[in-house]
Design goal:
about 325 residues; alpha/beta; Rossmann fold; 2 domains; 6-stranded parallel β-sheet; 5-stranded parallel β-sheet; 11 strands
Length: about 325
């Protein structure tokens, strides 16, 4: 089975974190025997130029199907250009739109992106969404009915528990003291770093001393060190699809405090310590205080292994491919 994976970003020097989940998923699929080729759609070059490049890549690879990661104009272009079945995976903002506080132009671009995403769903032969929340965001009932919830997997060779003191030494952090890790870039409005800062102020008022670190400019392969070095991860996003950093934290036994976005409540259900609380400073701060005073590591690593390990997820996606291609043969 030969697949062309289309993404708006793939890892490259200077931007290693871009598309890392797609790269890891492609590697997991290859281990199952799926031939995966890639195409990076760089829309800043212009949609016509990008469409021509995509068409040429399809002719070069001659895939049995095309799998587009994230909706927007790329998925719509693939739906129009692809002579073979199309799979679209929706990841978050492609269906949920921009964050409050984004510049006016970004808001307009995101609205156009959502429209393109919805039209691409109509053209797609199979739809994958990262959470039930994203499935509900699809406009057409028929698209919601056939969409399958498959979140990105976790590389458990990378994300595993290790000694916290050793992780801190390798990062150059002080071995003593409490650390809360903000699991995203503080520059992205949708992640709401300001809310994490407000929650941290509640700790000082309660006499709990801790500092806030971020994943700003952290290379993908260094994220496990940060999760193992931290006492807790905080997620304050306005919206998410299925934030992989939450699953990665649990795989590293790092407790998580998060607002109720995406599939976070499902991932953290029964995992202790940790909490899903209203996304406001008092609730988040109170949950952080409870986790830091508890002091234990999270107990959900086995759950991640059973449900979200990269090979498990790759097998589910491979099955989507097989069923879709089988339907195509039947329909002939």
């Amino acid at each position: 089975m030969r697949v062309l994976a289309v993404a708006t970003g793939l890892p490259r020097p200077g931007a290693e974190g871009v598309g890392i989940f797609i790269q890891r998923e492609a590697e997991a699929l290859r281990r199952l025997g799926v031939e995966v080729e890639t195409f990076e759609a760089r829309y800043r070059r212009g949609p016509i130029r990008t469409a021509r490049a995509l068409s040429a890549r399809i002719q070069e690879v001659r895939p049995e199907l095309v799998h587009v990661y994230a909706g927007s104009i790329g998925a719509l272009c693939a739906g129009i250009l692809s002579p073979v079945p199309l799979v679209v995976t929706y990841t978050g903002s492609d269906l949920l739109g921009a964050a409050r506080g984004d510049p006016w132009l970004d808001q307009m671009v995101c609205r156009a992106s959502v429209v393109c995403s919805q039209l691409a769903a109509w053209r797609a032969d199979a739809i994958i969404v990262c959470s039930a929340q994203l499935r509900a965001a699809l406009w057409r009932p028929s698209d919601r009915a056939r969409a399958q919830v498959i979140a990105a997997g976790v590389d458990l060779e990378l994300f595993r528990p290790m000694d916290r003191a050793e992780a801190r030494r390798r990062l150059g952090w002080p071995v003593d003291g409490k650390v809360v890790l903000f699991g995203a870039s503080q520059r992205r409005a949708v992640k709401r770093f300001w809310l994490a800062e407000e929650a941290m102020k509640r700790l000082g008022a309660a006499g709990v001393q801790a500092r806030l670190e971020t994943l700003e400019n952290v290379l993908p392969n260094d994220v496990p060190l940060h999760l193992n070095a931290a006492d807790c991860l905080i997620l304050t996003s306005q919206h998410e699809g299925s934030p992989n950093v939450v699953k990665e934290a649990v795989a590293c036994a790092c407790p998580v405090v998060a607002g109720p976005v995406g599939d976070v409540a499902e991932v953290l259900d029964g995992v202790k310590p940790g909490a899903v609380v209203p996304a406001e400073p008092s609730a988040l701060g109170g949950a952080l205080i409870a986790v830091l005073r508890d002091g234990r590591r999270a107990d959900g690593a086995q759950r991640i292994r059973e449900r979200h390990a990269a090979p498990v997820v790759a097998a589910r996606i491979s099955e989507v491919y097989r069923r879709m291609l089988a339907r195509r043969v039947t329909d002939r």
